Amino acid sequence: MTTALITGSTSGIGAAFARRLAADGHDLVLVARDTKRLREQATELHDRHGIEAEVLTADLATDEGIGAVEARLTDRKRPVDLLINNAGFGNKGQYLEVPLADELTMLKVHCEAVLRLTSAAVAPMRERGRGGVVNVASVAAFVPRGTYGASKAWVVQFTQGAARDLAGSGVRLMALCPGFVRTEFHERADMGTDNIPKWMWLDADKLVAAALADLARGKSLSIPDPRYKTLMGVVKLAPRGLLGGVTAKTGRKYGPQ
Ligand SMILES: NC(=O)c1ccc[n+]([C@@H]2O[C@H](COP(=O)([O-])OP(=O)(O)OC[C@H]3O[C@@H](n4cnc5c(N)ncnc54)[C@H](OP(=O)(O)O)[C@@H]3O)[C@@H](O)[C@H]2O)c1
């Protein structure tokens, strides 16, 4: 029996990871801020799949919260085999419209927590000669689109660099770059989504299935949908100035309304 720890497990992409990994027979450590919701999720997954689901309440925007998850990941008596760094959020508004404190909170959750939790998980995994880390980034990492995309670009660069450094150790690291996924993400940030074309929306369960297949294949970067793979191919070739304009139109309109 292996154990997976998922941050941001109670909703959206994290909940899809929890469903899939529980169905595959993995024990889980579920991390988020809402204890009641975590307990309900743990009970449901235990009852449905017969796995052990542990609840760890932690706010990854705080040192205390990150420290609590680091402590769990480095507990050698209860090894964690797979870490899914998924917790994240968006701030509504363009650069300078968002208070600096909120921007810093985003960097804490998207970058500092990801760095510290990956490092805590990987050290014992390397000793055992096996393990995996999935860091949830975004296709926004590849387009010049504000501080959210910048934080996710950090996640991609960090993860692929670390994957290279750990090659041959038995530990796999992969950055996962979804496009738009129907979750609580946009609603939580009070972002309207009416202008996002229907074809751009992805299903969280299919996304997770494709991501885990990519991890098993040893990929360090996963863009798990043919539509977005094509789109990102075009993005690579397009001038960055033009990209900024196009993405501002399709994406950023879901900012201030
Ligand atoms: N949805 C999209 O279109 C999309 C696209 C690309 C990438 N992503 C990325 O996918 C990841 C998951 O997003 P989602 O769309 O599934 O969002 P979601 O439905 O809003 O879920 C976010 C999860 O993260 C937890 N969380 C948020 N802030 C936290 C904090 N400070 N500490 C601990 N847990 C926290 C939430 O639970 P609590 O509130 O209880 O803490 C919840 O479980 C994020 O990293 C996001 O940037 C999303």
From TrEMBL:
Lineage: Bacteria, Bacillati, Actinomycetota, Actinomycetes, Kitasatosporales
E.C. code: 1.-.-.-
Pfam families per the UniProt record, alphabetical: adh_short (PF00106)
Keyword Oxidoreductase on entry: yes
CDD domains xref list: SDR_c (cd05233)
Protein name per its UniProtKB record: SDR family NAD(P)-dependent oxidoreductase
Residues forming coiled coils: none
Membership in a protein family: Belongs to the short-chain dehydrogenases/reductases (SDR) family.
Highest taxon, organism lineage: Bacteria
GO molecular-function terms, A-Z: oxidoreductase activity
Keyword tags: Oxidoreductase
